[in-house]
C-alpha cells in the first residue's frame, strides 16, 4: 500500500470488513515510519480543528498518552507552519486518560504532553483541561475531571445523547489491545453512564483515570495512532477477527455517528494480509 494511502475499508481487498470494530466509517492509513505518521496526524488535527472552529467556534480534542503520539505533540510545537495554523485560542485540550500520579511524575501523560507541547506555547494561549492525577482518591480525581468536562461541554452545548461530543479523540493501543486506560477485564469496560472513571488495573496494581466507551463512541472523530511491531499481532486480529478470537477493548471503539481512522506505521501493520498493507 502506498505510504499514507488512505483507503476506506470497503475498498481494501483482503482486509475483510467484519466485526464491529470495522464499520462503514472506518478508514486506515499506513505510513513507513512514525515521523510520517506524526506529520499526517498533525495535518488531520489541523483540518479537524479548522472545521470545528468554523462550524462551532471551538475545537475539542482529547489527547492520548504513551509514547506514540509524542512526535505529533512535538511537531505541533516546533513545525512552524503547523504551529502558526492551529487555532490555539479556540482549542480545548482534554486527556483520554491519566495515570494516578502527580503531573510532575515521569509516567504522567500530562507531563509528556506538557514537555512536548504546552511548555513551548505562550501561557494562556490555549485551554488545557488536565486530569488531576495527584488527587489521592482516584475516584475523586475522576469525579473532578468529569465535573470539569460537564461544565465545559454543557456551557458550550456540546453534549449529545447525555455524553460530550468531542470533535477529535486521539487514542493509542497497547499490545494487549487496551485503549485509553480501558484494559482487558478491567471494571471500566462495563461503564455505561459515567464520562470519566477510576479504573483498577490489576496487572499494575494501581488505578488509572479514563474516559469511558460511551464518551469515546460519541466523538465526531476518533484517530487511533498505533506504531511498533509489538502491536502487529493485535492489529492483525482486530482487522481479521476470528469468531473464536478474543475481544479486545480497542474493538469496542465504534463511534456511533462519527469516523474512526487507524493511522499505523508499517511495523504495526506488518501482519495485515500480505500485499494489502
Ligand atoms: C497511556 C495511554 C495508552 C497508550 C497505549 C499505547 O496512558 O499509556 O493512554 O492507552 O495509548 O498504551 O502506548 P504507546 O504509544 O506507548 O505504545
Describe the structure in your own words.
The strands form three sheets. Strands 1-2-13-12-9-3-4-6 form an eight-stranded mixed sheet, with helices on one face. The chain contains seven helices and 13 strands. Helix content is 27%, strand content 21%. The chain has one domain: Rossmann fold (3-Layer(aba) Sandwich), CATH 3.40.50. The termini are close together. Helix 1 (34-56) crosses helix 2. By secondary structure, it is of the alpha/beta class. The structure holds 6-phosphogluconic acid.
What is the gist of this entry?
The protein is of the alpha/beta class.
**What is the molecular shape?**
globular
Helix content: 25-40%
Quaternary structure state of the chains depicted: single chain
Kindly report the spatial arrangement of strands forming the biggest sheet.
Answer: 1-2-13-12-9-3-4-6
Provide the structure class.
Answer: alpha/beta
* CATH hierarchy: architecture: 3-Layer(aba) Sandwich
CATH topology: Rossmann fold
Bound compounds: 6-phosphogluconic acid
Which percent band covers the strand fraction? 15-25%
Largest sheet: 8 strands, mixed
